Recover the amino acids of this structure.
C-alpha cells in the first residue's frame, strides 16, 4: 500500500534483492505510469565512502597518544588509488594505516550510496491517494532443492520416507514473513547435440516413468509446492520445510552388477546394493517427487538408525519405479572372465564368458547380472548358449537373475557370437 501524491513522485524500495535483475522489474498501481526506474547497488562501506569523497573536504581527527589531546584539521581528498592522498593546507599527505589514533569525519553521505540495495521508481500519478501497488522481479541467489530421509526396514521389506524442501537465500536480503511457492521443473537452458553413442553403463535410478497425475497444482509442465505458512527466509540462511511423510512403503533390496564388454577382470568387484520402491498412489509414495537427494538409513541391533548411502533422483512423476543405489556391497562380488575367443570367419567371432558371483553373507542373495556391449557401433552380438535363461533388456544388453546361496558362490556361463 503506497500513499501516492498527485503528479510525479519517487518511490524507493530498500529491501529488494542485491542480485535483482533490473530489466525484469514490473510495477503496477491503478492510476499511475512509470517514468523511470533505478537500481542503486553501490552499498555504503568505509572504502566506498572514501572513494565517493574524492574532491570533497573531510575532517581529520587525531589523538596524541601521550597527552590524549585531540587535533582537528580540514583536508581535501585528492585520490583513493591503493591509498588515500590528502591535501591539508599547502601540504600533501598520505593517510597511513600505522595504528596511530586517527579518524576521518565526513560532512554527509553521498546521495548515491545506500545502506541497502535500493530500487527507486519515478511514477506519474493522476490523483493523490493510498492504493495497492505490485512490484515483481527476478533474482539470482534464491534456490531450493528436495531432500529425502528414508528409513529402510530389511526384515519388513518397507521404507519410511520423509521429504524436506531445503531453501537457500544468498541474495543479500532477508525476506520476512514471505508467502513462498516452490516450482518444481527444469526450464530450458539450451544444450548441444549428442554426438556418437553412449558407452554401456549401469541402470539409472528411474527404472520406469510413471503415468499417474499427482494431486498438486500444476503450472504448465511444472508442479507447484506452496508452503503451508508464511516464513522468514533470512539472508545466508538454509531453511528446511517438510512436504512429504509416508510410512510402510513396500521396498526390496537387490544386488546389481553390469559388465560393460567382453574382457577379463583382474580382480572381483563389488556388486551395487540397490533399494527398489514405487512412487505410485497404490503401494508407493503416492506423490510426484521433485529432484533431490535420497538418503537411506537402517536400524542397527541397538535400534539406532545408521546412514547406509544416498542417491540423487531427477524430477519423478507419480507411478514411477525407482531403483536407488545405496553403495557397493561388502560381501557380494563379481568377476567376469573371457574363457575363450575364436574367429569363425572374416566377419564373425565367438566369445565364451564366465561370471563368478560370491556371497559371504549368512543368507542367500539375488543378483541382477547384466552384460552390455552386445550392439556396439557396427557389431551385432547374440547369445548362442548360456547356463541359465537370460532376459534381453534391449539390443545392447541382456540380464540374468542369479541366486547365490549363503556363504557360497555361483558360476554363470554364456557364449556369444559377434558379427561385424
Amino acid at each position: 500500500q503506497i500513499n501516492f501524491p498527485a503528479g510525479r513522485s519517487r518511490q524507493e524500495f530498500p529491501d529488494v534483492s542485491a542480485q535483482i535483475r533490473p530489466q525484469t522489474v514490473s510495477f503496477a498501481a491503478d492510476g499511475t505510469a512509470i517514468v523511470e526506474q533505478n537500481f542503486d547497488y553501490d552499498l555504503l562501506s568505509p572504502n566506498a565512502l572514501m572513494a565517493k569523497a574524492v574532491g570533497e573536504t573531510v575532517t581529520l581527527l587525531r589523538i596524541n597518544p601521550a597527552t590524549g589531546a585531540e587535533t582537528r584539521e580540514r583536508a581535501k581528498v585528492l585520490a583513493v588509488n591503493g591509498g588515500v592522498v590528502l591535501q591539508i593546507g599547502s601540504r600533501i599527505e598520505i593517510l597511513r594505516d600505522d595504528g596511530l589514533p586517527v579518524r576521518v569525519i565526513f560532512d554527509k553521505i553521498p546521495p548515491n550510496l545506500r545502506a541497502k540495495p535500493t530500487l527507486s521508481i519515478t511514477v506519474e500519478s493522476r490523483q493523490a491517494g493510498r492504493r495497492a501497488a505490485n512490484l515483481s522481479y527476478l533474482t539470482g541467489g534464491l534456490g531450493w532443492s528436495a531432500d529425502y530421509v528414508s528409513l529402510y526396514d530389511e526384515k519388513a521389506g518397507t521404507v519410511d520416507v520423509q521429504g524436506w524442501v531445503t531453501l537457500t537465500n544468498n541474495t543479500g536480503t532477508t525476506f520476512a514473513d514471505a508467502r513462498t511457492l516452490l516450482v518444481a521443473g527444469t526450464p530450458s537452458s539450451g544444450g548441444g547435440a549428442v554426438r556418437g553413442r553412449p558407452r554401456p553403463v549401469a541402470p539409472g535410478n528411474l527404472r520406469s516413468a510413471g503415468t499417474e497425475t499427482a494431486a498438486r497444482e500444476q503450472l504448465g509442465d511444472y508442479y507447484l509446492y506452496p508452503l503451508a505458512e508464511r516464513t522468514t527466509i533470512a539472508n545466508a540462511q538454509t531453511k528446511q520445510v517438510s512436504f512429504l511423510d509416508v510410512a510402510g512403503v513396500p521396498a526390496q533390496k537387490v544386488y546389481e552388477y553390469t559388465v560393460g564388454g567382453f574382457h577379463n577382470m583382474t580382480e572381483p568387484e563389488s556388486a551395487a546394493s540397490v533399494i527398489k520402491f514405487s512412487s505410485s498412489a497404490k503401494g508407493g509414495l503416492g506423490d510426484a517427487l521433485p529432484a533431490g537427494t535420497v538418503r537411506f538409513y537402517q536400524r542397527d541391533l541397538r535400534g539406532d538408525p545408521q546412514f547406509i548411502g544416498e542417491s540423487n533422483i531427477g524430477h519423478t512423476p507419480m507411478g514411477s519405479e525407482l531403483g536407488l543405489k545405496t553403495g557397493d556391497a561388502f560381501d557380494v562380488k563379481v568377476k567376469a572372465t573371457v574363457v575363450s575367443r575364436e574367429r569363425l570367419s572374416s566377419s564373425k567371432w565367438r566369445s565364451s564368458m564366465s561370471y563368478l558371483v560370491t556371497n559371504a553373507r549368512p543368507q542367500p542373495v539375488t543378483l541382477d547380472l547384466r552384460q552390455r556391449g552386445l550392439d556396439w557401433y557396427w557389431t551385432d552380438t547374440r547369445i548362442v548358449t548360456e547356463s541359465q535363461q537370460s532376459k534381453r533388456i534391449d539390443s545392447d544388453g541382456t540380464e540374468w537373475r542369479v541366486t547365490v546361496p549363503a556363504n557360497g558362490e555361483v558360476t554363470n556361463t554364456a557364449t556369444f557370437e559377434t558379427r561385424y
Remarks:
- The chain has one helix and 32 strands.
